[in-house]
Design goal:
TIM Barrel, single chain, 12 strands, 333 residues, ten-stranded parallel beta sheet, 14 helices, 45% helix, two-stranded antiparallel sheet, alpha/beta
Length: 333
């Protein structure tokens, strides 16, 4: 039996109850974790995470990632305490700085994202450690609070706090304050070289070493016995990311011309018809560069490239609906 680390990433393209089956199947096949996305206004992460935790026994359950703006810090800590009650020592808190225009459109002003993130991590860690906390920061103001456990386990909780960083400064901060980094998807493996340098700089500030710092990475993974079908599935996903999430388009080096053409076709929310029309604007070489797409052999080879460049555990995002084929392709037993 092999014991390579591998995890599954679930978003919103499947029925939620099917997601529970995928989590169970991934556990059976030796996957280390299942991570639930929360980005667009479609599916929150906490409800599915509770579902995955309830139907499994060993697999870890992570938020990949929730933002640090919309849940009050007391609620955020209580939420992860609750998840840890459901699945002790199996829960991972992945946090991200969110993105505009979505944040602005729901009334969130993401000023000073680094300060806001740092305060969230500091206070969250203290609360999950069952400390009594008073903290008067720029964003977080709490007075003499603690997680009010009367009937449950009154002991510090082992919930790693990881940051899903994309920008350079956030990546450095991640090395300084977080328990790990959730590296982003839709980037070429070479993107990791710069990320590792930035993490190293941050880790030096906190007196830690890279080998003790976890670096799982989201990887869009489209697996099909038919190479062209796999590429096509990825294009449907990429055209939406390129149009809607400017930080990802920037990180993946997509030309402005391609971005503007795709944006001119896609509304928000995008309709299926718009996606089918816009996907052909995504070049094949971009798909091959920033995703693990193709036959099972091709997809596995691409995932290895990310691991060679610092990813400690690939978090595979199945595209095209063939979740079981992807899990079978990367099965550990």
């Amino acid at each position: 039996m092999t014991n390579e680390r591998v995890a599954l990433y679930l978003q919103d393209s499947h029925d939620l109850r099917d997601g529970l089956e995928y989590a169970k199947y991934a556990e059976e096949k030796g996957f280390e974790a299942v991570w639930q996305a929360e980005s667009r206004l479609v599916r929150d992460a906490i409800v599915p995470m509770a579902g995955y935790a309830a139907v499994t026994n060993k697999i870890k359950v992570g938020s990949g990632v929730i933002n640090n703006w919309t849940r009050n810090i007391g609620l955020l800590a209580a939420t992860f305490l609750t998840l840890d009650d459901l699945a002790p020592n199996r829960v991972i808190c992945g946090l991200g700085a969110w993105w505009d225009p979505l944040a602005a459109n729901v009334g969130i002003d993401r000023k000073k994202p680094l300060t806001a993130m740092k305060e969230t991590v500091i206070v969250m860690r203290k609360l999950l450690n069952l400390e009594r906390v008073t903290y008067d920061g720029e964003f977080i103001h709490v007075k003499d609070i603690e997680l009010d456990v009367v009937y449950g386990r009154r002991e510090p909780r082992n919930v790693p706090i990881m940051i899903g960083a994309t920008g350079d400064k956030m990546m450095e901060l991640t090395g300084e304050v977080a328990d790990g980094a959730v590296l982003n998807y839709c980037v070429a493996p070479e993107y990791n070289d710069n990320a590792m340098e930035l993490l190293h700089t941050g880790l030096k500030k906190s007196g830690r070493k890279m080998e003790d710092f976890d670096r799982p990475q989201l990887i869009v993974c489209s697996v099909d016995e038919d190479h062209n079908k796999a590429i096509d599935y990825s294009k449907m996903l990429l055209c939406q990311y390129i149009a809607q999430q400017p930080h990802i388009a920037k990180a993946s080096n997509v030309s402005n011309e391609v971005v503007q053409k795709i944006q001119s076709i896609l509304g928000w929310p995008a309709s299926k018809e718009q996606v089918m029309k816009a996907k052909d604007l995504v070049p094949d070489e971009l798909v091959l560069k920033i995703t693990a797409s193709g036959t099972p052999t091709e997809a596995k080879a691409k995932v290895e490239e990310y691991k060679k460049r610092g990813c400690t555990c690939p978090i595979l995002y199945p595209v095209g609906g063939n979740f079981k084929l992807l899990i079978d392709t990367f099965a550990q037993n």
